Amino acid sequence: MSLWTPGGEHPVDPADGGQGQGPGAGPGQPPLSPDQEAEAQQIAAEMAEVRAQLSQVPAAQVVANHAMGCWELAAIHLSAQPPKFEEAQLAIDAFGALTEVLKGRLGDDEATLHDALAQLRLAFVQMKASFDSGAEEPGDS
Description:
Shape: elongated
Order of helices and strands: EEHHHH
Number of strands: 2
Largest sheet: 2 strands, antiparallel
Number of domains: 2
Distance between the termini: 60 Å
């Protein structure tokens, strides 16, 4: 197991009680204080627990959750003032790529994902058209 830190990735062996090459003990890195080592071990244990929990969740459910993250990201960019259409388009395209490439494999959430994508695409087109027409006619409010 390893622990990522801003200083790089470091091997962590919970069985050695923190006496091995833990975070901060690599070449050119100062050794960690006992408090820092304890915190690193706690973080590593929490990460192992999260990984164990995540391994129990069907992959389709996790992918659907990530797809909805793309939906949310697109919505954030569309709601910006002024809307960030290029950023929203990237998030929409990523959402579409996930749902289209994995069609038939996303489980119970698939229909909801496809509906959400269709609604998001429609909102994008409507907002873009409205924004573009407003930009072309600056005197009309």
